[in-house]
Amino acid sequence: MAGTAKNILLLLSLLASLVLTMGNGFAGEPVGPEFRLPDRSLYFQGRHIYERRCVLCHGKRGNGQGEMSVGLEPKPRSFVKAEFKYRSTPYGKLPTTEDLVATVKGGVSGTGMGMFTTLSDREVRAVVEYVKFFSPKWRDVDNQALPIEVPPVPAWMTHADKDQQRLNRGRLLFGQTCVPCHGEAGDGNGPNAGELKDHLGRPIRPANLVAPHLRTGIRPEQLFKTISTGLNGTPMPGFHGVLSGEQRWEIIAHILRLRSGNNR
């Protein structure tokens, strides 16, 4: 009995140490003007929702290897790797909480990730906070960043005749930055397309930019965000800070021409 009591006291001591450690590393308190560590006050509610709604695809350990993952393409996201494609933040950075909320609510077109419209706002926030606990990346604020600003669509892009000089520049820029992967027609069949791999070493195909639907959206402002942020875990880089905003709009104008079937 004495040995049992001693073991219980040791266990309680270890649990107390764990709680203190979590308090230092996983808290909801601000760590900067815009950034917060994962909110452990929502942990258990988030886990409950995750185990009911997410575990079949993303797996109990959050590694993207749930029972349903075998037949899915693309594969479910690994929250352990924390390489999130769909973000408003610069390439290589974690998404904002709002980015994750938008993905849970809106789903991802053309994938097994559906829209969870029956969850309340609090439930969505809870499961978003829970998935952050799968990766230590969320404890390092250096992995966080402010969203990239998406400016209004330029007036020249809304005119029927547009601006031929800008359209010509857009075609040249598209040829220099996009054709190697996406191809001249934008259909994802560029000369490098067959050699591309994702962050796990799996073959990956460039997006077909002229397909009816794109996972990141087909509106000009959605294309601007994707070109600016890139897709983490893929060969698609972010061009924020590489190309000017005007240059990105010019590329988008050319993509829209390709989508309309007019490449003159």
- Radius of gyration from CA coordinates: 22 Å
CATH hierarchy class name of the largest domain? Mainly Alpha
The domain tally reads: 2
Order of H and E elements: HHHHHHHHHH
CATH homolog superfamily of the largest domain: Cytochrome c-like domain
Structural classification = mainly alpha
Helix content: 40-55%
CATH topology of the largest domain: Cytochrome Bc1 Complex, Chain D, domain 2
Can you offer a commentary on this structure?
- Helix content is 41%, strand content 0%.
- It has 264 residues and is mostly helical.
- The protein folds into two domains: 27-143, Cytochrome Bc1 Complex, Chain D, domain 2 (Orthogonal Bundle); 155-260, Cytochrome c-like domain (Cytochrome Bc1 Complex, Chain D, domain 2).
- Helix 2 (43-53) packs across helix 5 and helix 7 (164-177) crosses helix 10 (245-260).
